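[Meeting: bench + compute handoff]

Bench side (C.D.) handed over the final construct sequence. Compute side (W.E.) agreed to return the predicted structure before the next meeting so the bench team could plan truncations. Sequence as handed over:
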Amino acid sequence: MRFRLLAAGLAALVLQGCGQNGTAPGSGDRALISFASVSPDAGALDLLVHGRTIARGVGSTASSRPAEVETGRTTGEVRASNSAAVLATVPLALEAGKSYTVLVAGPRAALTTTVAVDSGPGEPLPPLPPVEPPDSGNPPPPTEDYARFRIVHAAPHAPPLDPYLQPSGAPLDTVPVFLPFEYGSLALILDAIRPAGNYTVAFTEAGSRNVVLTSPDIVAAVGDVLTVVLGENANQSLRIDVMRE
């Protein structure tokens, strides 16, 4: 089941630098690719681009350092480490000077892939919008005291859901943090900027306050970039994984 893509054009991008080490985007005819996995059972994985292994031995909730690759259209291959077994493929359209993240999720027998363009470690943070404080009662944090959250729908058998991000123990906010939120998006999603602290992410049925799944407490320190991934187990039940840059 496939859902429509989210509209592109918001300020920041999904999965900026999962595991980035501050490397600047490639120059000339080069691009950068990072590889991340939240598969519950796929084990260590490799990513091949243009026939070359650019990431090796990436385990669940882990990510690789960015690797330079040639630009152009190609197909990436996700393989079991030290094996010729191709578990998934991913179409890539790589542009010079840009940085990308390939994320795999789901069970080994049916891996799903998501590609996103990273905003790049050297770019300034987006300015906080001049809006009213969030419904959770937290005022917009000063720039030196915030953490960033990104929330990704990587569960192909789940319907669209509404994600809520709030301090641990707090009730649901009156509006979700992102809308719409559905599987298959390769588009841009605005970072949720919050003060450092303990948070949970709750997922409700779309358009309702009926909670389907709630994450454990997520400790967000100053400067953290946290990617919360809604994925699937091998039996298609939902799971939540958290990746920390």
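W.E. noted at the follow-up: The longest strand covers residues 72-80. C.D. will use this when planning the next construct.
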